[in-house]
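Fold this sequence, please.
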Amino acid sequence: MADYTITRDVAGYRAEWNLLYAAYAGYYKVEQDQQMRDRTWGWILEGRINCLMALDNDGKPVGFAHIREFLRPLSSTVAGYLDDLFVDPGQRGGGVVDLLFDAARALGQENNWSVIRWITRDDNYRARSVYDKVATRTNWVTYDLTP
């Protein structure tokens, strides 16, 4: 079994992140081009998105989580929003996702976030089986309004 580490110092992993992020977009059938990935990478480098990257014992990126801050006016708190989480299919089942969630929890504690929230596709059963172990499923329904 491989050992994994999590890093937040991701600047040197642009090419590997690009491949992982393209695979993530492909999984969700989101058409994405290089310009879109460049913009997202820029947000990471600017600090607008926290990128937690999982590295195998050879230092190769095998997964990531993107988390950003958001405000919760009703509770008057600041929280984290997990936008993206992806583990290379060949690395799944080895504990990578657990380390990413541990790192997300630590990031939330450091920032005094009240919660870390995310959504997933209803039929993403494998991921949901993990999420049900690490978090509480809410009863909120999500809507998208196109401006």
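The longest strand covers residues 61-72. The helical segments are 14-27, 34-46, 96-110, 125-134.
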